[in-house]
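Schema walkthrough. Field components (list of strings):
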Amino acid sequence: MRLDLFGRIVSLESRKLMSYRVDFWLNVLVSFATQLAVAYFLWLAIFDYTGAETLGGFTFEGMVLYYVLAILLGRLVRGQERDLAVAQDIYQGTLTKFLLYPSDYFGFKYAAHLGDLVPGLIQLLLFGAVSLIVLELPPDLGITPATVVMAAVLVAVANLLTFLLRFTIMLIAFWADNVWSLNVMLRFSSELLGGLMLPLSLFPEWARAALAWTPFPYLFYVPVMTLLGEVPPSEWLRAVAVAAVWSAAMAGIALAVWRRGTLSYTGVGI
Amino acid sequence: MIRYLRLYAHFLRFSFSRAMEFRLEFYFRVVMDVVYYLVNLAFFTVIYRHTTLLGGWDLDQIYIFVCGFLFVDALHMTVFANNLWWLPIFINRGDLDYYLVRPISSLYFLSLRDFAANSFLNLVIAAGLLVWSLARYPEQLGAGRVVLYLAFLLVGAFIYYILRLTFIIPVFWLHSNRGLDEIMWSLGKLAERPHQIYVGWLRIALVTLVPLALTFSYPAHVLFEGLTAERLLHVVTVTILGTAFLLWFWRRGLASYSSASS
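Field assembly_structure (string):
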């Protein structure tokens, strides 16, 4: 796909998302506030009751900061989760027009997915800045320009991996009547196993060892820990490599499913 | 009353025959909800590796709380969710006319006409989990308290329905409820933890203005601590006021409805 076309789709999608601004910002604000409030009060209750200085390697302040970053980086990794559009294209027969375009479908959808990230980026900068001012930060905070760059690379790979996981699932729409449930299932699993609901350092050792072989920790937990300066460069390189291998594997599977699916696609929709 | 029950039996028959047309989706949905249940149970299991009490509840009690919330969620998904999902679309497309001219309550018809048969198996699984959590509880709970707990869970499900609908009805004026619905979904996350962990104005709001604490958390309190007159009065008052408000709000919404493509 041509770069200028790719850029235009990114721009168009981001503007589309911001078209209902009051709706958008109200939703974003309440969603961020409630997610953070649930985590804040949960851990406040636990730290108060146990009297522990640290849990899973986090002080209370560190835990709150983890959730702030996980929520905000999570939005960059996941986008707006509108990839059901792929399944809709198949169900409604609108995929046909994309097949006729002199450009590939994957490029279109990935550009639209990246366009979804612009509001997330604004939220990251805005809420991130406010949180840094309002929240009590841990004294040994390890965020440096280097960790920001390292985390940005991981977020980019995690974003691609998330897109590929969802894209592959959506392609099952070539054969199944409805794939919404599969997408939601992926979301539930990745929130727990990826570290969005809980830092993975709280999991038992055997679970962490098993999870390291899956794509989930590289979606949220490892990018956040990298930004916090808790991941040494060698570990970071390994994480980027593992996430890239998972992305390549998912791209291969998606391509195979796409080829099989388009053979059975009739273009009439359901 | 009999007429309404007979009508509901027809809703059930139509819903099951429709669900059987999409069998793969039926199974996907079952697996999806099972994953959701496992994720919630696993979440608290991991939390309790690092504490013995949360909001005064131990792991056995929190399993009952979680299974209660999963049961109410499954009940909502089965009975109300599909209908509430379609309601804003009907209002915006002017499809409400069909329901308004029927000789029964439009709110009844629109809230209950689509029974999610593909979620029904999940309701059975959630009920099974609830029985499991109650059965593994190490102390004697007593049949009376368990019955009271189930009754409070059903009232909780009704309060949750009122809240969801309250966030949907503004579509009569706003024409898009996506933002409001997502706000309700976000607020609903607060109810998925025991309400006693919240402090200050948030806790007060959760038992009064947005009474989400009454949906899952209060029933568990009744089970573990027994029913007090104060708590009973609280739940009854909120339910009556909520119902009255919902009926008034619904009528106001209908008064603003101007049929096709309003």
